[in-house]
Amino acid sequence: MIRVLLADDQALMRAGFRALLDAEDDLEVVGEAADGAEAVELSRRLLPDVVLMDVQMPGLDGIEATRRIAADPDLVAVRVLILTNYGLDSYVFSALRAGASGFLLKDADPADLLQAVAVVARGDALLAPAVTRTLISEFIADPAPADPAAGRDVLTAREQEIVELVARGLSNGEIAERMVISPFTAKTHINRAMMKLYCRDRAQLVVWAYESGLITPRSR
After folding, report:
1. Lowest-confidence range among 24-33, 133-142, 171-180, 191-200?
2. What is the CATH number of the domain that holds 181?
3. pLDDT digits (tens, 9 = 90+) for 48-102
4. H or E stretch including 30?
């Protein structure tokens, strides 16, 4: 059973999501929050598997709420899926930097929402290679200053190469083909890099690659 917390300031929107999710045998809505502060509080109290987080809410917004959830060691298993009306806008990369595991448009098909919740709940990132490429071209043109000491020395040369390919938007299969290894081996290297860098998921690995200066938009 996947336990979901809904965070949206629109009661009608929450009701729609609840009806969709509760209709599934393996999903359960365990709570609803009308703002970011309540989302953080309920996350700590209810320990959901996934928080469906709106971006723009009164008081504490979804970005800051996501940051607080991701930074709380007691909530390490809680994943945040950002919901937005605005598509690939400036909020998205801010959300990924804050610790979100992915994002979804509010007008997505119901089947896509259900799949997104399942993907995030099992610890994967909802960040398809095509989305990664768009994020690179649209939102990392003005990155934070590179931090050369951000942990690159803990990665082997092979791991650095693979992380760079992830940040360029390649899938596991494409990385395997590029490096002449199996997809399983590619996934193993990626998982090992995430463990070494304390990245929650693939999305965070992409963010780290840019924050650390391992890759820059100009080197795409």
Report:
1. 133-142
2. 1.10.10.10
3. 999 999 988 999 999 999 999 999 999 989 999 988 776 555 666 777 778 888 8
4. strand 27-33
CATH code assigned at 109: 3.40.50.2300
- Both 96 and 181 in one domain: the answer is no
The answer on 146 and 104 residing in a single domain is: no
14 phi-psi bin (left φ>0, alpha ψ -120 to 50, beta other): alpha
Q: What percent of the chain has pLDDT over 70?
A: 82
Its domain, for residue 46, covers: 2-126
User: Cα–Cα distance between 114 and 192 in angstroms, integer?
Assistant: 28
- Residue 7's SS3 state is strand
Helices and strands, number each (H, E), in the chain: 10, 5
Tokens representing residue 168 in the block: 């360029």
pLDDT tens digits, residue range 101-152? 887 878 888 998 998 899 888 877 666 555 555 565 555 555 555 555 456 7
The DSSP annotation for 8-32 comes to -S-HHHHHHHHHHHHTSTTEEEEEE
Q: Are residues 7 and 99 in the same domain?
A: yes
Under DSSP, the state recorded for 126 is B
Same domain, 60 and 167: no
My answer on whether 81 and 105 are in the same domain is: yes
